[in-house]
Write a structure and sequence with these properties.
alpha+beta; Glutaredoxin; globular; KaiB_domain
């Protein structure tokens, strides 16, 4: 896996809550955990952000220097670049409620 864009989707004109979500997923190679994190992220995005998100996958085995910019200490790590503020979620993103709270898509229960 190298740095790659996954399903870039553009937001159309409309209210601020329709803005594009820019997400970056840091992984280390093509491990089962990395693949699970990407699959889980795609599922959450298609369910809750359909048509309003882009995912950039960064493989730190290929581009290790890219970890410094977002201060990545563990992988897989999801970084919400936009909308601000920047948010980070570490793990395989299998707990959908935790991911939704981490992305500010639903309030903490």
């Amino acid at each position: 896996m190298s740095t790659a864009k996954v399903r870039p989707l553009k937001a159309g004109p409309g209210p601020a809550d329709k803005a594009e979500w820019q997400l970056r997923l840091y992984v280390a190679g093509t491990t089962a955990k990395s693949a699970a994190a990407l699959a889980n992220l795609k599922r959450v995005c298609e369910t809750h952000l359909a048509g309003r998100y882009s995912i950039e996958v960064v493989d730190l085995l290929v581009n290790p220097k890219l970890a410094a910019g977002d201060q990545i200490l563990a992988v897989p790590t999801l970084v919400r670049k936009f909308p601000e503020p920047i948010r980070k979620i570490i793990g395989d993103l299998s707990n959908e409620d935790r991911v939704l709270v981490g992305l500010d898509l639903q309030p903490l229960r």
